[in-house]
Amino acid sequence: MTKYRTLLLATVGFNFSFLIWFSFAPFTGPMAEEFGLSLAEIGILASAAIWLAPFGRILTGWLSDKYGAPTVFAIVLGYVGVFSMASAFAQSYAVFFIERLIVATAGITFVIGIQHVSEWFEEGELGTAEGIYAGIGNAGAAGGALVLPRVFGEGWSGPLFQTNWRAAFFYTGVVSIVLAVAYYALGEAAKSDAKRQATKDNASFRGWFYTATRYGTVVLALAYVMTFGLELSMNGWLATYYREGFATNDLVLASTFAATFSIAAGLLRPIGGYVSDVLARNEKDILPFFTGRYREQWTFLTLCFVVCSMLGMTAAGLTGEVLIAVAAGFLVGTGCALAEGSIFAQVPAMFPNSSGAVAGVVGGVGTVGGIVYPLVYSAQFLPNLHTGYSIVAASMIPIVLLTAWVFQPKIASVANEDGFTSDRRTTAPADD
Taking the model in full, what pTM does it have? Predict the structure, then answer.
């Protein structure tokens, strides 16, 4: 039963990491009022939540392969908790900004959990297991949007703090430290000593550079920019969008609208991984152009859906009806979930002994979308707050075209061996 305990432990840890990562989103209104922030500065704050994630994920993916997930996960949860508590006492915006920047590295735990789960589950179960882990974990953003503004409401008056967002940051920090201790005490790095050693042996810079430059790694990383990066951007922005774009002045209501996206993007993710597993097991073609590449077909289809749904987001917003925009946001979240589940069904299946390193590259590069997209949404040159979604959709089209090229059967069959550097026989040990 240890593999299910591992899945539960990783899922709970990542779910809370996502909650604390975006715990600022429901409170942008009162924070902006206290620190005198403009709408553009709120957009920068939402973007800043992702700034350290690319490098952090790449590093922790490799560290998880090298030292084991329980140790690395516990360290991250521990220092995130400390800085979250510290941010509750910040009196200047500069200090607050730096402390929240460090708290935002909670998002790097994603690749740690991906590596941990992959060390326990067989290939035929990877899509479903990783989908459950990441899907329920990502839903932590929805939990934060639904729970935090209700527990720490506008009239908050409790121990230590008279300000709701300060109390929220302090007490979530305490929980993070508790979870750090639990993860270290209860987690086991791999299902066998042989598996742990094989993964550890592959954790060299040469091995990392090799896997990071394969065609499969590169294209999945870019696909993750337009899916998980998009999800990050929406988690940090939608509460502001529904409040400012539709004059929804109720903080709880705007956060609830935003949570519908996070629920779809999180809880539907296991479906993406499950469908990928089923297609691979049954050798079922759904797109003849990619005959025989079953996981790739599903991934490509879901990426196309994301682009279409983002165009729909602009169209829905221009109607001026907030509920139509909320429904469109739910569809975007659905597309993100299905695509992300499919992408991370492919990652450990393609690189079984370097799953942490590859997950770090894919997950790290993918967060770039979370940095860039909020700046587009809040750009002052746009005619309205709805247009940015179409601009982002247009930027995704080259990624989809590159994906179509790599997913061709002849290229896809060696996408874990061929890449932008010399061949594998002279650069890295085999991954299969």
Answer: 0.77
pLDDT in tens, 402-425: 999 999 999 998 888 888 776 554
Which residues, 6+ apart, have CB-to-CB distance to 208 below 8 Å? 62, 354, 357
Q: Is the Cβ–Cβ distance between 163 and 41 less than 8 Å?
A: no
Alpha carbons 244 and 33: distance in angstroms, whole number? 14
Q: How far is it, in rounded angstroms, from Cα 71 to Cα 63?
A: 9
Do 80 and 20 form a contact (C-beta atoms < 8 A)?
yes
CATH number (domain holding residue 206) = 1.20.1250.20
| 431 inside domain | no
Query: Which are the contacts of 18, defined by CB distance < 8 A and separation ≥ 6?
Result: 106, 107, 137, 138, 139, 140, 141, 143, 144, 266
pLDDT cut 90: percent of the chain above it: 43
Amino acid at 258: A
> What is residue 138's three-state secondary structure?
helix
Measure the CA–CA gap between 88 and 92, rounded to whole angstroms.
11
Measure the N-to-C terminal CA separation of the chain; round to a whole number of Å. 26
| 116-146 confidence digits (pLDDT tens) | 998 898 877 888 888 899 888 877 877 787 8
What pLDDT does 70 receive?
94
**pLDDT tens sequence across 344-392:** 888 877 777 677 788 889 988 988 888 889 889 888 888 998 999 999 9
CA atoms of 88 and 259, how far apart (whole Å): 24
Q: Which backbone phi and psi does 91 adopt, to 5 degrees?
A: -105, -20
Q: Which domain holds residue 109?
A: 2-426
Q: Which two tokens stand for residue 39?
A: 């709408």
DSSP per position, 238-256: HHHHHHHTTT---HHHHHH
214 three-class SS: strand
Number of domains in the chain: 1
CA 217/CA 412 separation, integer angstroms: 11
Alpha-helical regions (H) of 107-214: 109-118, 123-138, 140-151, 164-186, 193-201, 205-212
Q: What is the secondary structure of 297-359 as a DSSP string? A: HHHHHHHHHHHHHHHHHHHHHHTT-HHHHHHHHHHHHHHHHHHHHHHHHHHHHH-TTSHHHHH
Alpha-carbon distance 266 to 162, whole Å? 32
298 neighbors 286 (Cβ within 8 angstroms): yes
